[in-house]
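To whoever is covering the structure queue this week,

Two jobs came back overnight. Logging them here so there's a record in the thread.

Job A:
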Amino acid sequence: MFLQMMIPHHRQGIEIVKQARAKPVQDQLKVMAMAIESTQGDEVKKMMEWLRSWDQPTVAPSSAHDHHGGMPETDREKIERLAKSKNFEPDFLNLLIAHQDDAIQMAKIETMNGINPDVKQWADQISKSRKAQIDQMMALLKKKP
């Protein structure tokens, strides 16, 4: 279920970071957004391969969020508003920080309650990498005047 929920979460993250391509943002942020897009694209492929190899559906049942702390997806309206933001960089960073924190929360639940040792280990890696991204984004927010 963790993988089934993380696939759409990752795809939303990719949708968010793609918005930084055509915007005037710090070079460091542009590089980070491209890295997130690439990494999360590779992670989606990995999750899909795992699920297919286990003959599992790639989509979580509609009640799946109930079992992972009720974590909702990132608000679609917020993602759409971001494209029109007059303060794109801080709005982008704040939205992506919240989005990546949701990934950490989901990964921590999997690390504690998951069954498959490979997935639990991977969830721990996700938690650590997203924490590092958040730390980097927080530093970028503080650099802005």
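Job B:
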Amino acid sequence: MRILGIDPGLRVTGFGVVDAEGAQLHYVASGVIKTDAAAQGDLPARLKLLYDGIRELHARYTPDCAAVEIVFVNVNPQATLLLGQARGACVTALVACDLPVAEYSALQMKRAITGHGHAAKAQIQEMVRRLLTLPALPRQDAADALGLAITHAHAGASLARIGAGATLQRSTSGMYRGGRVR
């Protein structure tokens, strides 16, 4: 399964592409989409650059699904609203490409990658480098995006096992319920 991770930002959006084969993860690509080509005050032009950039990533890497960071509420409401619009442009582009989109908070990603939710950016970069056996640290935005893809690879496998367990539970005709055999 090929996963496209997206760390949305209005000026810089990180992306990371990972192939997951069971428990094995393989780095494919990472980088950033910059919106510097548009004037700072031209929000529609910046959102279009993000939308077009995501569509280009889809065409180039043909992912099977995407994982996007959920926007956190910032102390600056205006910044939060702008980030939400950038995230909306990214999600819209992914959905327009017919990709299933999973959403994870920064806390969930940090826990999945480093084992605790208060990891610093440098810790995420180092763990992503180790998990994907990269020769150097990825850029911060790209590391977060790769972290989201890795989180989804792990969560997707867990959800598949849970789904298989639910199917097994239904197929046993009531023999197993509530954690104990009857």
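Note for Job B: Residues 7 and 116 are 19 Å apart (CA to CA).

Please reply-all if you pick these up so we don't duplicate work.
Q.
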